[in-house]
Amino acid sequence: xxxxxxxxxxxxxxxxxxxxxxxxxxxxxxxxxxxxxxxxxxxxxxxxxxxxxxxxxxxxxxxxxxxxxxxxxxxxxxxxxxxxxxxxxxxxxxxxxxxxxxxxxxxxxxxxxxxxxxxxxxxxxxxxxxxxxxxxxxxxxxxxxxxxxxxxxxxxxxxxxxxxxxxxxxxxxxxxxxxxxxxxxxxxxxxxxxxxxxxxxxxxxxxxxxxxxxxxxxxxxxxxxxxxxxxxxxxxxxxxxxxxxxxxxxxxxxxxxxxxxxxxxxxxxxxxxxxxxxxxxxxxxxxxxxxxxxxxxxxxxxxxxxxxxx
Length: 310
Fold this sequence. Notes:
The chain is mainly α and 310 residues long. The chain is built from 15 helices and two strands. The chain has helices at 2-20, 23-35, 53-60, 69-85, 89-100, 108-118, 128-137, 145-156, 161-170, 176-188, 192-203, 209-222, 225-235, 256-263, 285-299; strands spanning 242-243, 252-253. It has a two-stranded antiparallel ribbon with strand order 1-2. It is globular and about 60 Å long.
């Protein structure tokens, strides 16, 4: 009897502690941990309850302009997480708009953090006003010009092409990395000259591990058929110019499997799927390769690309 009584007491204490965790307290405790640079272990799970979202967002407001940089960044990261987990369109769009408003901020760290979070959303999540604001920001922002250009091409599509061209013309002294980001964005926004030049350069390079892991992620961002036609054609090759992801296995292998991993998330109705670790979901790699190549032969002239994800 005493043992049962003790269990009941512990259970009640646990419940009392759980219910005592208001959304405001969770937010405040989390930010205090960040401010003091202690271990950040406050569980945010209670904030994901739809009944608590509004209170959580109100509690976060004062931290967006906090004097401590890490606290500001954590506030925006937490808000983004709330939006990504929320099924409430109004909540999602409110948080997106909040982050979009930072794109022209003089606080480069905040705008960079918000760009990183915004590319995690679906393009269809963005309200019209935010899409227009992003387009305007391309030529107004003083920070993160390259990353903002890539975000804009993803969200706005071809309509932002003139803004991107102007950005490049007006900033001739930008470093090569930023210029490359802007050109990638221009390709995503539909610049066929850049798309063709990109593919021609790729055809002159060796298709190996370095190409697959360093260049292909950039290529798939452009989300255009010219580039994907080249990648699908490469999947059909049997030359063994890549190596296994297993460091203990140095034998050469075809690059097709690595390429399939890279293109799978972006081709609609593609037969191969990847898991959370970005690895192919299959127990039979040769059978999957045969299926994918058959699909390519049947659909290479009429497949569609998913433009709604970054």
